[in-house]
What we know:
By secondary structure, the protein is an alpha+beta fold. It contains 2 helices and 10 strands.
Amino acid sequence: MSISFRHSSGFGKRIEYYLIGLMLKEGIDVYVPLVDDNAIDAIIKKADGSYIEIQIKARSQDVNPGDAALFAAINHKDRENYYFVFYSERLKKTWILSSKEFIEEAALNKSGKNIGKRSIWFNGTKTNKITKEKLNMLKKNTISTL
Length: 146
């Protein structure tokens, strides 16, 4: 089944507002920019008065089951006070990573049309380079940890 462009582009915006609503429900001060020029979907004012920028990425329930927590071809360089909120509608799961954590966890594409972009797959496992322990990528932060 092919998903129309209107449906797929609208899905991302609907999930942004859904997650922003959850943040508001948690008592988080959230501000929404009118323009998304710098990959910022929301700005959060923390209790200490500082701000963090949020980029929201979502996967719909219509994706292939194995890709429900795959977020690919993301162009990103380390940014201070910047966080990603990843959401899988199929899995009903949310993951939150700082810019630094995203760079550490994501794979850097070294070839192909998305060279230099990053991909992360939360429904897989990753091996700790030092301890060689298998880590389950499904265990990440929640909205209230922001």
